[in-house]
Amino acid sequence: MSVASSKISLSHEERTAQEPREEAIHSVILSEISQESQTIRRLRLSIPKGENIKFLPGQWLDVHVPGLRRAGGFTITSIPSVAESKATYNGFIELAVQWSPRNPPAAWLWQSEKDIVGTALKVRVGGSFVWPPPSVDVGSIKRVVFVAGGVGINPLISILSDMHAKKQMPEHVHFLYTLKDPKPEEPTSVERNILFLSRLEKIRRSIPHNQMLLKTFLTGNRSKLDNEFDSGPEVLGRRIKPSDLIATLGNEKDRGQILCYVCGPAAMTDEFVKILKEARGMDPGKVLCEKWW
After folding, report:
1. Cα–Cα distance between 116 and 108 in angstroms, integer?
2. Which of 85, 88, 100 is closest to 47 using CA atoms?
3. DSSP 32-82
4. Closest CA to 272 of 255, 256, 291, 253
5. CA distance readout (Å), 238 to 76, 181, 223, 224
6. Among 205, 80, 214, which residue's Cα sits nearest to residue 147?
């Protein structure tokens, strides 16, 4: 999963050994699988009645699957309120798991649906890349900037969705999302092939005009993007440039009221975090990041 061979050999538990974890281990049932794209599966984990799993948006789960000694780590993409089981309702947690045959827990979760749906799993909540961040006075935040690379979208969709569900959206949201073009050979149908793009667009359309700016950047060899469609999300056939990041920050005098979340591959995350932290007027303590390997 890492660009560095030394990281590839490390398990999720080893890589996150210094991250906070809950003590409690919970039982869940893998109740539903849907194919989000050629390489992404959405998994729904049902929570037994009477048991609640508490987490903050942005956190991940240690997921213990049968037959494997080490847990896999997968970020929660749903929001905390749907994990609350009621007398007549099973709460649930959702994960988006990328096809990764070199990652044994992910490979197990990519087995045939008929072989694994209904299986009991053990999970534990962990992670410090969260909303609201404990080190920031969120009452002072007027703008939130999200930058997602590939499956780095996972914690950010949970954070944004929770803000929206609780009516805690800041005055301005800027969301930059870059990923490899999922189907460069198809000149149309961009939107339906991009993980969570329809969910992002639904949030954008539900709030006042111009409160949320959403840009998607596809890297690849697509010769034509058909989505210069007037009413849809803006999709660009290029990489995110430093100027794109700086543009999200607005006026220099107001940058002390900005909170940034960056999540993606290690090299991308390091580059973008450096640009944002060093931008004039920015508080480096308000540029938060998480890397996926």
Report:
1. 9
2. 85
3. EEEE-SSSEEEEEEEPPTT------TT-EEEEE-TT-SSPEEEEB-S-GGG
4. 291
5. 28, 10, 11, 12
6. 214
Instruction: Count CB-CB contacts under 10 A for residue 68.
Output: 13
The two most distant CA atoms of the chain are separated, in Å, by: 57
Name the region of 50 (left: φ>0; alpha: ψ -120 to 50; beta: rest). left
- Structure tokens of 288? 């938060």
Q: ∠263-148-279 over CA atoms, to 5°?
A: 75
Using an 8 Å Cβ cutoff, are 61 and 123 in contact? yes
Q: CA 263, CA 274: separation in Å to the nearest integer?
A: 13
Nearest residue to 290 via CA among 150, 142, 135: 150
Which pLDDT tens digits describe the chain residue by residue (293 residues)? 333 334 456 889 999 999 999 999 999 999 999 999 889 999 999 999 878 899 999 999 999 999 999 999 999 999 999 998 777 778 999 999 999 999 999 999 999 999 999 999 999 999 999 999 999 999 999 999 999 999 999 999 999 999 999 999 999 999 999 998 876 555 545 666 789 999 999 999 999 989 999 999 999 865 555 544 445 678 999 999 999 999 999 999 999 999 999 999 999 999 999 999 999 999 999 999 999 76
In this structure, are residues 245 and 176 in contact, taking their beta carbons and an 8 Å threshold? yes
Tokens of 114: 């008929």
Q: Which 3 state secondary structure label does DSSP give 216?
A: strand
